[in-house]
Amino acid sequence: MIDTPLLRGERIALTALNRADAAVMARWDEDSEYLRLMDTSPARPRSEEEIARWLDSVSKSHREFTFGIRLLDTDELIGWTQLDGIDWVHHTSALGIGIGSRAFWDGGYGTEAMRLLLNFAFDELNLHRVFLTVFSYNARAIHLYDKLGFRHEGTYREHLQRDGQRYDMLLYGILSREWASHRDGETNHSG
Hints:
Blueprint: E1 12-15, H1 22-28, H2 32-38, H3 48-59, E2 65-71, E3 77-87, E4 92-99, H4 109-124, E5 129-135, H5 139-147, E6 151-162, E7 165-175, H6 176-190
Parallel strand pairs: 4-5
Antiparallel strand pairs: 1-2, 2-3, 3-4, 5-7, 6-7
Helix pairs in contact: 1-3
């Protein structure tokens, strides 16, 4: 019998996002540091309506799964995560994550969300490889990806410019068997 909660952790759950979440997400977009960690696009706030349209489009896609990250005890939306551009032929996908509310940065919520999403990617969707990009100045995210067993696969040298400086964009990836081994190692060390 399958009894593992698929999208529920100890403190958070990965849930559907809906139009009502657009207001919260629009507030996150007012934080330029948050925006500069997410994307190479210029940091600019999006309106509730822009976000609502994006949420409508992702809910209809067969090539991505986007989830809200919600606290179990209050149901508060604190971030989002997604598998995007899924290639069903080769079983690969890009991954994205953002903890939008600064009050929850550095609290381990991203780690828990990533574990849930990787379990979903490999155990439910039967993906073979998940990859992501991260900017060289995002030390917190790099530490998280290293801790979860991702491997640095390449560097897009001087890929973006921020505040007159050039920064690399790093490519990380993890294979299904690597995640299984890492997860098993965590389980064996924790108890």
